[in-house]
Specification:
- The protein is an alpha+beta fold.
- It has five domains: 5-63, Orthogonal Bundle (Helix Hairpins); 75-312, DNA ligase/mRNA capping enzyme (D-amino Acid Aminotransferase, Chain A, domain 1, 2-Layer Sandwich); 317-424, Beta Barrel (OB fold (Dihydrolipoamide Acetyltransferase, E2P)), CATH 2.40.50.140; 432-583, Orthogonal Bundle (DNA polymerase, domain 1), CATH 1.10.150; 593-670, BRCT domain (Rossmann fold, 3-Layer(aba) Sandwich), CATH 3.40.50.10190.
- Helix 1 (5-26) runs antiparallel to helix 2 (35-51), helix 12 (432-443) crosses helix 13 (455-463) and helix 16 (508-514) packs across helix 17.
Length: 674
Amino acid sequence: MVADTATRERYDKLKKVVLHHRHLYYVLERPEISDSAYDELEQELVRIETEHPELRTADSPTQRVGGEAQTSFKKVTHQVAQWSFNDAFTPEDMREFDARVKRGLKVEQVEYTCELKIDGLKVVLTYERGSLRVAATRGDGVVGEDVTHNVRTIASVPLTLRRAVDCIVEGEVWMSEKALAKVNKEREGHGEPVFANPRNAAAGSIRQLDPKIAAARGLDTFIYDVAQTSEALPQTQAEELAYLTGLGFKVNPYFKLFRSIDGVIDYWKEWQTKSKSQGYWIDGVVVKVNARDQQEHLGYTGKAPRFAIAFKFPAEQVTTVVEDIVLQVGRTGVLTPVAHLRPVLVAGSVVSRATLHNEDEIERLDVRVGDTVILQKAGDVIPDIVRVLTELRTGKEKKYKWPSKVPECGGDGSIERIEGQAAWRCVYKDSFAQLRRKFRHFASKGALNIEGLGPSTVDALLEANMVQHYDDFFTLKEGDLLQLEGFAEVSAKKLIDSIKKVAEGVPLARLLTGLSIPQVGEETAILLARQFETIDDVASAKEDELQNINGIGDVVAREIVQWFTLVDHKHLVTRLKKLLHITNDEFTASAVLDEQPLFGKTFVLTGTMASMSRDEAKEKLRKLGADVSSSVSKKTYAVVAGEEAGSKLDKAIEFGVKIINEEEFLELLQNPQS
């Protein structure tokens, strides 16, 4: 199918953008976007060329291997062509790769080697009679740069091999995170810009004209391939790594052999978590057919081997398109602009929505409907637009115009900007949209945790006018529920029993969380429950009394006092006290809080644990006197890292915060004073 005008325009713009960022990355060492965002742009280019091969030109970035050689260094023509790898991003991609390999070899089983993909700078080392003669960068795959004077300063690079062999080997120059922190501290002291990551630092260091600078940077290497040797070539990739070790090269020790693609996928999943603890950046797994004769049979495409692939870890940043911007009415009437996105896979899940926070953020980003944007997951899970690629605009993008009225607000739909904040809210306080969110939240797992009272049931009860206030949940009867579609005697009895069970003991902190008091979330509710014994104590607290609680500021204190001052809320609390047994045993136990073993220590949880849920882990920590935070700071005592830990683990490493795994966490719970 011939490409239409819009596709041609998109392709031409994409090609220019990719070439621009490739030059910044490989030549100037000044990348403006992340590797994963760049990969997304290049992958889109590949998709268009695959669907419309007539658009592909000789100058397309997809037809090249790397960047151009710098003119300030002597050029080196490689004796052996330097290839790059095609990328895989999902298990499905790997199964397709496995199927292609098996078809090409006409076999039913293939043995693969898995090696960690180190995020550094590729280097090609040439030895004559066992002595290092030339070290070169990959460059464009044909011509690289002579960086011998700098590579000779790296302690892990042997100047003389253990045997007088002629060979060409390939590997990665990298910098540890510890070394990066030291280099950046020195650069800050000299008023120089810091390196964004170890990869940039390694590239910048290896291209220094003065080898003394490179020598002081703490560079290291892993060598992983024999391109050419005067001795017999090893017959498998595993033997090749052993051969390199025998010659005296540093080889990454974590490679592994698998006889099925399932083993490869499991290894990839395992290292997504383990990679954070190695001290050097790992951005995926390199998968190769192990047998050399099979590698040679499969051969190469124009730019990459058919027998190998880079299995990338889930991207932390991707590109997508904003298809619409809509306003969402929150529990407290605050309006949040939400970008509706072209669905995209980021950090392991498909995302089609991202909050734009407020009017000021839309203006700061200058994000418009139709824009191509860079998306990342803030923290561990929240999609966040970090940049608009304005260079891809066509002129058809539409600026978002903030409305004067929002029908979902109820009443006449009027909205107002909150004084001193960037947020807007509904003037009318009791719209159905707000009520629905509030009532759903009240029953949710994070608040009263009423099992069986999910969003659809809450909505049905509201629409049938069976509940108008939170306390109405606790006066429902089985016969009431039978009037709702989908309920029979058994399911109705089950839900009523669940509601009665909750009423028998509602922790004060959970009730405060569920009431949708502005500014009061789970953590603030716990601070209040620790300070006050009953809900009446909270209701009668003065602003200055609340402000004296560490973690509660003047805005939060004012909102709490105002909420409990309203007559409707006073009546609600009175009714709830009659229907619920409100407890505070967790924080008023015989042990004084500051005598508990983890008092004053703040923990952050990231990833998943096999032995318990995150809520269970939080509860256990709090019973021992600890605070639990959602973000890492220099004051954090420890980060508990489970499987698939996210960016909080990166923050912990950056701040030097203690990291403990699930086994160590369970030991801490058993022996908190040890």
